[in-house]
Write a structure and sequence with these properties.
Blueprint: E1 3-8, H1 16-23, E2 29-32, E3 41-45, E4 48-52, E5 65-68, E6 73-74, H2 76-88, E7 98-101, E8 105-106, H3 109-122, H4 134-142, H5 155-176, H6 184-198, E9 202-203, H7 205-214, E10 219-222, H8 248-253, E11 262-268, E12 271-273, H9 286-295, E13 307-309, E14 311-312, H10 313-323, E15 327-331, E16 339-350, E17 353-355, H11 362-367, E18 369-378, H12 393-406, E19 410-414, E20 422-424
Helix pairs in contact: 3-4, 3-5, 5-6
Length: about 425
Amino acid sequence: MTTVVAVGAQWGDEGKGKIVDWLAPRADLVVRFHGGNNAGHTLVVSGEKTVLHVVPAGVLQPGTVNLIGPGVVVDPEVLLGELDALSARGVLRDPSRVRVSGRAHVILPWHQAQDLAREEKAAERAIGTTGRGIGPTYEDKVARRGVRVADLLDAKLVRERIEQIAPAKNFELTEYYRWKAVDVEALVAKCLEWGRRLSPYVDHTGRILDHALRAGKSVLFEGAQGTFLDIDHGTYPYVTSSNCVAGAACTGAGVGPTRIDRVLGITKAYATRVGGGPFPTEETGAAGERLRAAGAEFGATTGRPRRCGWLDVVMLREAVTVNGLTGLAVNKLDVLSGLTEVPVCAAYRIDGKVTHEFPMTLGEVARAEPVYEALPGWHEDLTRARRFDDLPATARRYVDRIEALVGVPIEILSIGPGRDETIVRSDPFRG
């Protein structure tokens, strides 16, 4: 038995989907433990692209069981759409391969309306959410006024819950935001339809996970977003509404910390960010445009262009600390091909002082000036490399320098979007 947690080490969009897809054949179960359909994982297999927002990326591996844990917030329309599409392609013939926790909270239409209305009202102070209703759903969860997946299976209970919550929600939407009220009867009917269609997939995922671990099965915990979008450890308030760090795998899946063996942090070979918030190594000129174009940096969920910049090792060291990373996977190394010089941010200068530590406050991060090391670039196409030694010497030097600065081994390198365009230096499931 081996358990591996795979988490984003930046601001999300690190290419977790590809790495999870590569790791999935080594796991008997893949578990999504937090977030919602504000995260999109893109997988490319045999030239075919699949974008998943709720279903774990392990679903493309035959025989792998995929769990959506109680820490996830679920939009039933999105989940059912993904399940239908996977079934139509013949990928998901057996419903038992996808199990949804009855304790996961449901994203309802008023959550999406709240999300959009708040961003509109905030104007230039907007956080830059995806508008999918994630934050308002987590708010209701913490306030103990949420609707859970299991509630959808009980007609009497779901009506009681909706009728209890609706007056306050509709008052906020109509009186404060001047938005349209949610039709209660239509929502109850929709919830019952969701419950009917989801019932073959709803289960006690924590119990399934426990039985699998007791039986010696290997488990991959799939994170969403990234470390610096974490509600506690990220660049607050420009963060998501859940915990994205490795420790959330325990609470969001329902497993004790003694059962976690390894934690793999996933990063790009450069840096990107979507939405507002500070970004010390951002390049707003030609260099940023070049990274965006070469890396196809547009959000899998929203299609928004990503802000681009150079790799920030100060951030990565903080990610090592808060996640307990045992290794790194570096994506999109091939995007840097063609550069004569590749900068790496090794430290910050804040108010005239150089620091190698990630700041505690948003103001300090916003004032941080990157202190770069300039490493020699390379011009060769990396996509055909399958061993580390196949890479140009300067590309290997870049990888080695990151490894030395961060202080943990780089176990996996991605040099293209395809599943086979991967260099494995050490398999996390084999230690």
